[in-house]
Amino acid sequence: MTHSALIIDNLQYANWSEKIFQQMVEGGVSAVHVTIAYHEQFRETVLNMEAWNRWFETYPDLIFQGFTADDVHRAQNEGRTAIFFGFQNPSPMEDDIGLIEILHRLGGRFMQLSYNNQSFLATGCYEDEDPGITRFGKQAIAEMNRVGMVVDMSHSAERSTLEAIEISSRPIAITHANPHVWHPALRNKSHAVLSALTKAGGMLGFSLYPHHLKDGTDCTLDSFCQAIADAAASYGAQHLGIGSDLCQDHPDSVVEWMRNGRWSKVLDYGEGSAGNAGFPPQPDWFVDNRDFGNISEGLEKVGFDQAEINGIMGRNWLNFYETSFGASAAATG
Description:
The structure is a single chain. The protein is an alpha/beta fold. It has a single domain (7-332), classed as TIM Barrel, CATH 3.20.20.140. It is 39% helix and 13% strand. The protein has helices at residues 18-26, 42-58, 69-78, 99-105, 135-147, 158-167, 191-199, 221-235, 253-260, 292-301, 306-324, 329-332, and strands spanning 7-12, 29-37, 63-65, 81-87, 108-112, 150-152, 173-174, 203-206, 240-242. Strands 1, 2, 3, 4, 5 and 6 form a six-stranded parallel sheet that branches. Strand 3 (63-65), helix 3 (69-78) and strand 4 (81-87) form a beta-alpha-beta unit.
């Protein structure tokens, strides 16, 4: 099966299965950035990669590991899905800057500098105070720039995010979040952040996680696509893509690991109340990977031309991959 339209989803954390891999292929999704770690340290992260290796071996007709932008073209041509690894926390590098290069060699292509809480590197969006990027964080950003691992600030606080954009010598990404002006969730991003991000050549992936959508599960396709249109008018369509944050088929108990890890003895969901803690149903127009066509149609209805739609659905992320995943010129020169 070969698909002419390129689709890249730059963030998913599903309960992986043959069914989901098949849906990716049926939906024509050529690449997915998958979360390999939330709170796992290095050895645990390697075990998660080992699990993925078994899936790659078991379902070679559906998925394979992606390392470069060329793998996206290969996946599209072969009707498969390239899987790119990322970390929603810097915990896999522990307190050892040398592990950044090791993780990159193992396939890590994105790393958030914080996940909701304060980390060694930066402040998360649920903290009351944000002192910005730490001394360690500045060196970690430089090392990520050197080896070709993308700085991701999706769960980070305002000052830390603005400083990361300024410090990084390469464009950064907010892989899965929405404009705060559209829906004021704690993790959605301000105009100041989105303006700085895109002016520096960075990318925003629009999230379809219901807690980050206006009206939640009841968010309409038109509302979602109009939010993208408004962002395009402010920041340029070339800086926008999809990072669905699809958490398909997970039980609600998984949210406890995502939000709490091992740092808390009590349920601390940060954003919202305990009643807002589980996985809400997806909007009926985006339930799984077969529904990306609905977004394409919605973008057309709100006024995007075909080139802009192609960019938002995948081409913009591909362009970003092409310049982000390799070692910097300083490292190779």
